[in-house]
Amino acid sequence: MTATTGAQWPRWQAVSANFRGTRELDHARVTPRVDLATLYEQHHLGLIRLARLLVDDLPSAEDAVHDAFLGMHRNLDSIRDADAALAYVRRAVVNQSRSQLRRRRTVREHLKGAEPEVTPPADDDVLLAEEHREVLGALDRLPPRQREVLVLRYWSDLSEAQIADALGISKGTVKSQASRAVAALGEAMGVQR
Description:
By secondary structure, the protein is mostly helical. It has helices spanning 3-30, 36-55, 58-74, 82-110, 122-127, 130-141, 144-155, 160-167, 171-189.
């Protein structure tokens, strides 16, 4: 190795490093990052409504949406498409809601008979009309998967493909669960077909 070759080596590394940096900058320009603030502004209320219907109380729904956006923030570098970002956060909200319901069930099982059942605040009942309370009550009595499918379909207005993606199930399962859920909801509400 000559002194000249040794002197050129660091220069080559510097050129290579500059080239790699330029390529990364070009890649960043071609595939823009998802604007989390805009995504939050446009969709957080709808996601809170979705979670509210799944977990049946506003503070837990807000927590589920908060945790979903926090997870999204942690993985933001891997998400480049706004539609993919919305699907990601929607699925995270559903998963967070499921986790909260599991935790509640576990706590209830451990506390059986220890404390009287807590009644919801009176202002919640005042805000909802009688019919809405009946629908929410019937919805709450559905199996979790059927409730999730109905909420995503009719309250979040998602397609079967989007629901399948959000819940990690097939479109056929979405169709069958929706059909069963509508029938069960109609039966619970006393609606005749």
